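Prompt: Have a read of the protein record below and flag anything odd:
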Amino acid sequence: MAPLARLLPFSAVLVAVPASAQSAASDIRVSAGPLAASIRVLGQQAHVSIGFRDMRLATLKAHAVRGHFTPAEALSRMLLDTGAWARQVAPDSFSIEPATSAPPRRLATERRRPAKPSPPSPDAPDEDIVVTATKRAIPLASYPGGAQVVDGRALSIAESARGSDAIEMRAASVSSTHLGPGRNKLFIRGIADSSFVGPTQATVGQYWGNSRITYSAPDPSLRLYDVRSIEVLEGPQGTLYGAGSLGGVVRVVPRAPDLYDASGQIWGGGQWVQHGSPGMDGGAIVNVPLVEGKLALRALAFGNYDGGYIDDVERKLDDVNKVHTVGGRAALRYEPGGGWSIDLTGLGQRIHGDDSQYADRGGSNLTRASAIAQPFRNDYWLVDLVARKTWGPIELTTSLGYSGQHVLEVFEGPTLNDPALPDVQPKANAASGAYSQDNRVKMLTAETRLARRGADGTGWVVGLSVLHNTALVKRGLDGDDHLVQFALTGVRNQVDEVTLYGEGTVELIDRLTLTAGGRATRSTLSGKAQDVADAIALRFDSNASSSRTETRFLPSVALAYRANRAWTVFARYQQGFRPGGIAVRQNFIQRFNGDRVQTAEGGARLGTRTLETSLTASWSDWRDIQADVIDGFGFPTTVNIGNGRVLSIGWSAKWHPTSHFSLEGAVYWNDSRIVSPSASAVTLVANSAITLAPGTGTQAGGTVAQVASTIDQSRLPNVADISGRLGFTYMTPLRAGNRFEVNGFSRYIGKSVLGIGGILGRPQGNYVDTGVDARIGNDRRGISLSLTNLLDTRGNRFALGSPFLIRTQDQITPLQPRSVRLGFDLAF
């Protein structure tokens, strides 16, 4: 009766929820804020009752708690250095009391540091990593599939400035083309279609928070300043994310506004590039609680200038490939109470490149000869509204996103004999012209979902989503000032999708869970030619159509067995798809079909206090592969190149023997092949083999059978046969509360090819990239030094220069030469 007697004095102010039979560890996610609100959330999540002896304690600010803890452990972390402590008065009841009423000094001293499970177990991690990209917050240890989570705090300012390149450097299963920032395509685990960007949808779903950021446009390479985490889900994610997630999903989670603390940060730096021009960057973040505990604003602005390093020997210009980037975002968070939160976010970014970043092979590999500048730009904006309501473990989320992207590219190529007849090959001595491709994309997305989180990854999610995407591609032959002189045939594609999906996880027997789900999607596609020349009649053959409707159902199933809290073994099957569309081939419009991939994978994951490691193996069957390729003259177009299969094995590990040092490594092996090429692919490869002898146009492609044999069993492009990463982090305390932090990496990117068959089968990859970031300071101020490409490697990244010149020039895309950045950061 004694514990109950102690409970009576504060029973009138008790925060009560249904109690469980025992206070076991559970997944806890409580934000920092007033103690009264924080213990209410904790009580709901841990199924315990918590009350105050003194109501004045209710206004204290509690620390955020995220991880797998018992109620006592969570309260200890929440109350650290607040002047209060938690007394357990019953098996599922706690009293928050002033520190003056604390037990003897030995226990009071223990309260000053975060509690750990007692007795400590070497087989249990300090804190579970939670995968929120699953749309119901599953602990990584329970997730039945390949996944990687990068903590945003691990990214240095220099890394954040690299945008998607930083994701590729951190996540070994992610690869990218390298046409230039704002022009690239991301790939995951060997599902890669081509080096070129056309009207087809990406193979990777990219998300900023809850909103999709791309559909039929290149990766905008949004800068990663002030992000909470980056999550990579490998393999098809058709059930939760639908079309365009054949290879997986990359989700960036930005930091939300803080409702209680006003704060800010400024940073800046200068960069020296060997063999190139210097660069600079800077930015600022501010967080302002407008109504404490209810409404807050968080805003960010930045600018980057990247010095060039490619010299043009024909125009006698140095460092032509300079890039200018400016952008920012602002977020409002409103929490009216009752478990509601509303977030409104706007972001924008503009990338402008003075010239393309390719070079000619040979010599220093940092020079080329071109007659004209080939600038590019990528303007991107997004407005996102998200409303949430929670009832303990149940959460309702409704999101609405509207985005726009404008991508303009200019390529050098020989001028046409007749702009109205681009399918007629130019003369060998034709003068250089500037070909432009102007891509404008607008996308509206909306989704409502209801999810329930359970222990060890159990729970469910159901949702309804709609998508409307419009892409307008215009092409032209430009003058010296890049004003269109001759309009070439373009295309307008529109996609409307309505989707219903659901997924659930149940525990079949002790420690064995089954996950199953499905997604039904109905897509309406339409396409229309733009700027058709009068001399050409628009032709549709039996395989082309201006509009049609597709209905797809994507099932998924997975098993996960947790042998203990450290070991998990899993197996998974899931599908993904992309709808078809309308593409331009020379001056004609033709249809390309939707493609579909099915993947079976298995693996194991180990997570302890000192070691985290995982091993996955997957097999994918890819049907009617869509690929953005180049036609016989050099224009990008889209065709179905045939069927393929992808085998992938990945291993990753992180060893952290102390809190001051960690070592990590990863290796990925891929074998991706075309197993049955399509007739369209054979025709394109044959046409692309046309070479221009002096004064004539002779074809050196061989017979159709010979061309087909070069494609069959050929590799899919832009997938390194093997890639690996080795990284480390180290921190040591210094005087006056300062510390020294350093992290570094070395990456090997294996061999790949630019495209399928013939002249596009040129080798790429086979290089080593390196980097080191160091910082001296504290949470308030610091000085940093960043070094990239320590070996000054040239390499040949997965890209090209002008597709119109690829038949006559040997082009490479080198790494940025050895670079050093010196920077500062100040927080207030």
Notes: The first helix runs from residue 2 to 7. The domain at 251-827 is CATH 2.40.170.20 (Maltoporin; Chain A). Residues 1-22, 101-127, 534-545, 690-701 have pLDDT under 50 and may be disordered.
